[in-house]
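Q: I'm building a small set of examples for a reading group on sequence design. Run inverse folding on the following structure and report the sequence directly after it, with nothing in between.
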């Protein structure tokens, strides 16, 4: 038995805690988490539901957890596995011997965000003569590009996507290229809606302007080629496309590796060169880093290596077929319900839907689905695009699909009966007039309390299971009426309320 009052308390116990008890604590903490397996969580996790794969990846992780990627000469095992992963990703994405991109090189990073930051850094540092560099991205590009621009002091030129196609107009992207532009980016596919941008036209426009073109295939880059092999009409998006200079693909997404592994590929070594950071001007070891982290655990790399080797090309093809069928089934379920419509016809592994005129309140619907054991991801309205519900579909969803339709119908009926969330008038007017600068700590604490956010578990604020209320519709409705800058600020404040140290230890 474990002492529940000590679970989650300060990690440094006065006297070491026996291994079994510590593990029991971890397991108890995990109970409050959303289910990572079972095919009912449509975001954050990627589950192939392959028996034994978790155990294999964990064993490989354990073999290499203490190996340090800082120095590939000290730990050649890691270099070998990293090169093998880059080779596999390069091959899946149209590069390598016998292709039109035989010289593809790359690096393993910790995730999509790191890959994108590095793609921007590499493009920026290729042009030291440009004092105020800029990048051009469609509005559907992942937020990590904005993060990269922010971290690297690169200006971000955002081109809106068309509200019907959810894709950018290549001519508009081309027109946004200026003399200071160092990179044009696009997605294959976009996270929010799962649509593939017109990569060929965008890359051609970038090449005409002499600018690099990055294809963010972090999300679906590992699946699209398999979907194509299964006969789906996947447009060209990889190194086969002239003008594409770099591509990112996350192995911890659809390559089904445990978290912490993405690959950033460049068409050739000269394009990659500015990615490296080197420093010898101190008394310690000369630091040569291809990626942002210096010390890097071998664990995720070994786990990804084991995952790829074990699943194999045929395994990924089979998993892509299962996923494609699950996507089709879920999309049919959405089409069958009055009051909902697909944001886009699925062309990858995302099903994204919104409400039609007179349809249910989507945020209430999301809560109703949660109550029925389906964890979906609400997306707020943005720049003329309506609020929507995002489903990231993985192979584990396939056996669950038949259960989704009836539950969706039920949930829509329940949400319609409940009606939309009505924001209390004072909250609505507050959010309508509030500017991010006017947000005081007191106001944030008051708002959080009013919304049931950030309470101690079991203390009446949040639910017993954690710091969020069981029903999120009120919070989502409030955020939905706030402009993006206020959303950002409110959520930063809420999250910082959650990030409080636990001091007690025993
Ligand atoms: C298209 C795309 N790019 C980048 C990222 C960022 O990846 P990560 O969360 O691994 O940093 C994501 C994550 O969902 C994504 O979908």
């Amino acid at each position: 038995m474990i002492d529940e009052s000590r679970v989650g308390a300060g990690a440094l116990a006065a006297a070491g805690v026996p291994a079994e008890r510590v593990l029991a604590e971890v397991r108890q903490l995990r109970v409050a988490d959303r289910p990572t397996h079972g095919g009912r969580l449509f975001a954050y996790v990627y589950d192939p539901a392959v028996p034994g794969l978790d155990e294999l990846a964990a064993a490989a992780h354990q073999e290499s957890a203490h190996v340090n990627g800082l120095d590939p000469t000290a730990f050649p095992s890691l270099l070998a596995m990293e090169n093998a992963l880059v080779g596999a990703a390069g091959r899946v994405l149209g590069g390598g011997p016998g292709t039109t991109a035989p010289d593809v090189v790359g690096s393993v990073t910790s995730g999509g965000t790191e890959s994108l930051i590095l793609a921007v850094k590499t493009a920026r540092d290729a042009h030291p003569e440009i004092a105020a560099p800029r990048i051009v991205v469609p509005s559907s590009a992942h937020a990590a590009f904005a993060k990269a621009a922010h971290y690297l002091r690169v200006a971000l030129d955002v081109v809106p996507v068309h509200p019907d196609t959810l894709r950018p107009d290549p001519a508009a992207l081309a027109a946004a290229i200026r003399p200071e532009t160092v990179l044009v980016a696009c997605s294959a596919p976009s996270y929010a809606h799962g649509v593939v941008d017109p990569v060929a036209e965008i890359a051609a426009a970038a090449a005409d302007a002499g600018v690099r073109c990055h294809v963010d295939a972090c999300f679906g880059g590992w699946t699209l080629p398999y979907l194509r092999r299964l006969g789906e009409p996947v447009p060209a998006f990889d190194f086969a496309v002239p003008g594409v200079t770099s591509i990112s693909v996350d192995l911890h997404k659809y390559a089904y590796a445990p978290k912490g592994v993405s690959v950033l590929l460049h068409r050739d070594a000269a394009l990659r060169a500015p990615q490296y950071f080197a420093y010898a001007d101190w008394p310690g070891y000369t630091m040569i880093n291809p990626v942002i982290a210096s010390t890097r655990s071998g664990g995720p790399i070994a786990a990804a290596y084991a995952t790829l080797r074990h699943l194999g090309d045929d395994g990924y093809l089979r998993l892509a077929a299962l996923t494609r069928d699950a996507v089709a089934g879920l999309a049919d379920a959405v089409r069958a319900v009055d009051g909902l419509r697909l944001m886009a016809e699925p062309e990858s592994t995302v099903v994204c839907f919104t409400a039609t005129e007179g349809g249910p309140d989507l945020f209430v619907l999301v809560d109703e689905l949660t109550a029925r054991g389906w964890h979906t991801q609400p997306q707020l309205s943005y720049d003329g695009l309506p609020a929507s519900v995002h489903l990231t579909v993985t192979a584990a969803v396939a056996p669950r699909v038949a259960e989704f339709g009836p539950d969706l119908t039920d949930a829509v009926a329940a949400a319609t009966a409940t009606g939309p969330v009505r924001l209390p008038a004072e909250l609505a007017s507050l959010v309508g007039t509030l500017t991010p600068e006017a947000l005081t700590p007191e106001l944030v604490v008051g708002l959080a309390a009013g919304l049931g956010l950030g309470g101690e578990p079991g203390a009446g604020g949040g639910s017993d299971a954690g710091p969020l209320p069981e029903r999120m519709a009120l919070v989502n409705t409030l955020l939905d009426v706030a402009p993006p800058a206020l959303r950002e600020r409110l959520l930063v404040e809420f999250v910082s309320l959650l990030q409080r140290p636990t001091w007690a230890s025993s």
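The pocket of pyridoxal-5'-phosphate is lined by residues 111-113, 116, 142, 144, 187, 191, 216, 218-219, 250, 262 (CB under 6 Å).
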